[in-house]
Amino acid sequence: MGYKVVVVGATGNVGREMLNILDERAFPIEEIAVLASRRSLGTEVSFGDRTLKTQDLAAFDFTGWDIALFAVGSEATKEYAPKAASQGCVVIDNSSLYRMDPDVPLVVPEVNADAVLGYTKKNIIANPNCSTAQMVVALKPLHDRAKIKRVVVSTYQSVSGTGKDAIDELWNQTKGMYVPGQEVAPSVYPRQIAFNVIPHIDVFMEDGGTKEEWKMMVETKKILDPSIKLTATCVRVPVFVGHSEAINIEFEEFLDEDEARDILREAPGVMVIDKREPGGYVTPVECVGDFATFISRIRQDSTIENGLNLWCVSDNLRKGAALNAVQIAEVLGQKALKKG
Ligand code: 11C
After folding, report:
1. Across residues 149-160, what is the average pLDDT?
2. 322: how many CB neighbours lie within 10 A of its CB?
3. Ligand 1 atom 11: the closest Cα is on which residue?
4. 97 — phi, psi (to 5°)?
5. 290 and 167 in one domain?
6. Is 340 part of a structural domain of the chain?
7. Which of 59, 222, 265, 297 suits 75 as a labelling partner, its CA being 20 to 30 A distant?
8. Which residues are noted in the entry as NADP(+)-binding (predicted)?
9. CATH of the domain at 329
10. pLDDT value at position 135?
11. Which of 89, 143, 243, 287 is catalytic?
């Protein structure tokens, strides 16, 4: 016996990955529906060896469906997630809309799986921002051992975090650089992304930070520990898929780099690749399509008392979005919505 699952936003990058991952992880499904906005209506999407036709989100009745994985923008989420939830379907939402709602759990299963049980207040569970999800998977086992005081993180985020138009912009701008007359002006991003880096993700906040940087701070506190101080600089780089992060951590207790490496080797969801030689680390290209959060370059930071540096890379469409959502569905099934 399985679950009746709805994927909302099934034609987008994250929605398609959700379908791939439901299939790859053999999530127990009795029935599946794929929904899209009217604009993409009738588009076909693959699910394992089946082809599914999208149905109209606006007209869909969620009554009798168990779980809805939402991968649409905040506007559509605002309209349809409460509708699905009120019709008795548990929403796992990938947008930022509900993440900081005190009545909605924000979950990364390797870190705070039990928080899933808080879904009953609104029938909604939030999926964190991609850059937060991969980072807290790495921080959690180290925090358990030596208590993190402060994190300084710089991100190198791929264009797939923005969406399909951004992927096209990077591709076309890159090609256009070599063909006179076919140069492509920036449109998705405020500056050229091909062969460049842009220190700006999401909107600017009053304090001069960006919302992406703010999300990393507040989401880490909600998922892992409110006492952790975190400062971030989030940067867009000309990479299609895979977010990278240089993370500097200050602990309350001393943590030796070799012990940190051993702890991370044992940690759920983590893969350590850390040889001190050329190529002995992971880059975004190798992480695409993988489930793991990869950690490399683990080393002491001798400029502070209890400091460590590391490099963290993961597929932002997977651990940062679709995989984490499916893992939440798995935990929900094990802890609450038991079937069979
Ligand atoms: C990016 N992290 O790479 C963003 C995408 O709050 O879910 C995800 C935005 C979010 O642009």
Report:
1. 98
2. 27
3. 161
4. -55, -45
5. yes
6. no
7. 222
8. 11-14, 39-40, 160-161, 316
9. 3.40.50.720
10. 98
11. 243
**What are the φ and ψ backbone dihedral angles of 143, each rounded to 5 degrees?**
-65, -40
Same structural domain, 161 and 266: yes
Q: Do 136 and 120 share a structural domain?
A: no
Task: Report residues whose beta carbon is within 6 angstroms of any ligand 1 atom.
Answer: 96, 129-131, 157, 161-162, 201, 212, 215
Residue 340 has pLDDT above 80, yes or no: no
Q: Please state the rounded mean pLDDT for residues 155-166.
A: 96
Burial class (CB in 10 A: 0-12, 13-18, 19+), 169: buried
Mean pLDDT to the nearest integer, 228-244: 98
Judge if 205 and 328 occupy the same domain.
Answer: no
Contact 315, 241 (CB under 8 A): yes
Q: Specify whether 182 is located in the same domain as 88.
A: no
Find out whether 12 is annotated in a ligand binding site: yes
Residue 276 lies in a domain: yes
From CA 1, how far away is CA 65, in angstroms rounded?
Answer: 14
Q: What is the pLDDT of residue 41?
A: 80
223 plus 274 within the same structural domain: yes
CA atoms of 187 and 305, how far apart (whole Å): 45
Is 234 annotated as catalytic?
A: no
Asked if pLDDT for residue 37 goes beyond 90, the answer is: no
Residue of minimum CA distance from atom 9 in ligand 1: 129
Residues 70 and 145 placed together within one structural domain of the fold: no
pLDDT tops 90 at residue 173: yes
Q: Which residue has the tokens 């138009």?
A: 165
- Whether 243 is catalytic: yes
Which of 130, 234, 287, 312 is catalytic? The answer is 130
Same domain for 160 and 121: no
